[in-house]
Amino acid sequence: MKIDYKKVEVIEIDGIEHGDYPDYVDAYITEAKYDGKPTTDEMIDEINDNYPDFVYIQVMEQIN
User: Fold this and answer.
1) Residue 2 has what pLDDT?
2) CA dist 5 to 1, 43, 49, Å?
3) 3-state secondary structure at position 32
4) Cis peptide bond upstream of 22, omega within 30
């Protein structure tokens, strides 16, 4: 699955544990939109499982 991350709008992230700073390896995206439309569970899984750098950036943006 090819994902254009410029079209991903992360709505909600769960699993942020500040005791895990700076890695936040347990954090994951639970809700997002892609090109303005709700994402499928499969797309969320694809992002969380295969693009940890993108998830990490989103976590850092949320906590700052």
Assistant:
1) 86
2) 12, 12, 15
3) strand
4) yes
pTM for the whole thing? 0.91
Residue 56 is classified by DSSP as H
3-state secondary structure of 59: helix
Q: Tell me phi and psi for residue 13, to 5 degrees.
A: -125, 140
* Angle, CA of 36, 59 and 64, to the nearest 5°: 105
- pLDDT at res. 22: 93
Q: Which of 53, 52, 46, 44 is nearest to 12 (CA)?
A: 44
Q: Angle of helix 52-63 relative to helix 41-50, nearest 10 degrees? A: 100
Helices (H), 1-64: 41-50, 52-63
Q: Answer for the pair 55, 28: CB distance below 8 angstroms, yes or no.
A: yes
